[in-house]
Amino acid sequence: LILLVRENGKLVSRDEIIDRLWGKGLYFDTDNSINTAIRKIRRALGENPEKPQYIETVQGKGYRFKGRIPAAPKITPPPIDTERPRIMLVVLPFENLSGDPGQEYFSDGLTEETITRLGKMSPNRLGVIARTSSMAYKRTDKTVARIGEELGVDYVLEGSVRREPNRIRVTAQLIRVQDQIHLWAESFDRPPQSILDIHGELGAAIAAQVKLKLTPEEQQQLLSPQRKKQEAYDYYLHGRYHWARLTPVELFKAAEYFRKATQCDPEYALAYSGLADTLAAAITSEVPSKEAFPEAKAAIATALELDPDSAEAHNTDASIKFWFDWDFDGAEAAARKAISLNSNYSLAHLYLAHVLSNVGRHEEALATIQQARVLDPFSLISNTMYGQFLYHAGQLEESIQQLRATLDMEWRFWIAHICLAKSYEQQGMYSDALAACEAAGEFSGGNSETLSLA
């Protein structure tokens, strides 16, 4: 229904519906699935298919939406304080100029690495928008002014990467949102093994342009060379690429790549952390806990031993303690440690908020999740958990509004459907709750929680 409504009266072909809802290369009866979906939509709208008011069938071609409905609520980032002490920056997705779509994992990975390194540069004075919200602008045609308004940032870093067998060329430019002036631009031509060292030069140039004076410790951390085996780093980037998709199949692929990275470089702390992250996320995809727990715990223990100052590792430790051990005190301590190491790490704010909400500290939880949403306003999981924490706090109407707005961003995000079902049930909206459970079951691939709720 959302797909048809968004096209605003334009014809949507059956092939486009298949592509948008399920993807290409499927081998089940998609025609019957489309017919069933249209029938359910018409039933929900109380429509007579012989005299359609909303869904028009164009024989042999597809469907179009004829009716008018009020605009759905939109996700809006938390209010941005105009007197905020921190400068805010977004790193837009690096454009892949290699001419090979198979290199998207590398350009996306370089974007994430840049976000991470700049986020650690001076987190109390420079805020960096997280990966999820940055990636929302991949191949966008929006202006810098529009992006700045939507994210509440002062500066935009954009660039491109061209990967060749023996050389990698990265171009970057810094733009001030206020007047769209290009403050700085540079090209970096490096052999593959030296590509990570460009972040020191990038960070120093950005700090100079935004009048950010780094402490000697911050300068040393920024300019310290990054020594990783190139093959292991490549496996790691593949792992992050698949992890970001958070589906059972993609999580399985991510875990395999992280394992390869650790086998290639047994001292690669972030690869162990990524593996533990993946295994923790996989428990929501019906992976037996007795399979995931031991490997996840071993991986995070190794990550912390190799790099005790890694915000990512401490945050993963928080997730392990939260999901596997139900050690809420330990999870809170680990999340706070991660935030102390990098206050720009949005997932650490998310996990801290989750702990606080689960132990009944609702005001603290809602304030903390807002920090995650400032850093990652388009994150589906952060916006979903905000709705869940409102539910925990007994603010049911606000929870429903927030979760509906999240699903307007991505209707297939099944975790939001589960959370919405809980709020509907508490409000006595049982038919809506069952519909939400049905959607969660469909989009999750049959997660058992949906059955227990229904």
What does this structure look like?
By secondary structure, the chain is an alpha/beta fold. It folds into 3 domains: 2-65, Arc Repressor Mutant, subunit A; 87-223, Rossmann fold (3-Layer(aba) Sandwich); 230-453, Serine Threonine Protein Phosphatase 5, Tetratricopeptide repeat (Alpha Horseshoe). It is 57% helix and 10% strand. It has 21 helices and 9 strands. The strands form 2 sheets. Strands 4, 5, 6, 7, 8 and 9 form a 6-stranded mixed β-sheet that branches. Strand 2 and strand 3 form a beta hairpin. Helix 15 (346-358) runs antiparallel to helix 16. The longest helix has 18 residues, at 104-121. It is globular and about 70 Å long. The two termini are 23 Å apart. Mean pLDDT is 84; it is low at 69-73.
Secondary structure elements and pairings:
Blueprint: H1 2-6, E1 12-13, H2 14-21, H3 30-45, E2 55-58, E3 62-65, E4 87-91, E5 95-96, H4 104-121, E6 126-128, H5 131-135, H6 144-151, E7 155-163, E8 168-176, E9 182-190, H7 198-209, H8 216-223, H9 230-243, H10 248-264, H11 269-282, H12 289-306, H13 311-325, H14 328-341, H15 346-358, H16 362-375, H17 380-392, H18 396-409, H19 414-426, H20 430-444, H21 448-453
Parallel strand pairs: 4-6, 4-7, 5-7
Antiparallel strand pairs: 1-3, 2-3, 7-8, 8-9
Helix pairs in contact: 4-7, 4-8, 4-9, 9-10, 9-11, 10-11, 11-12, 11-13, 12-13, 13-14, 13-15, 14-15, 15-16, 15-17, 16-17, 17-18, 17-19, 18-19, 19-20
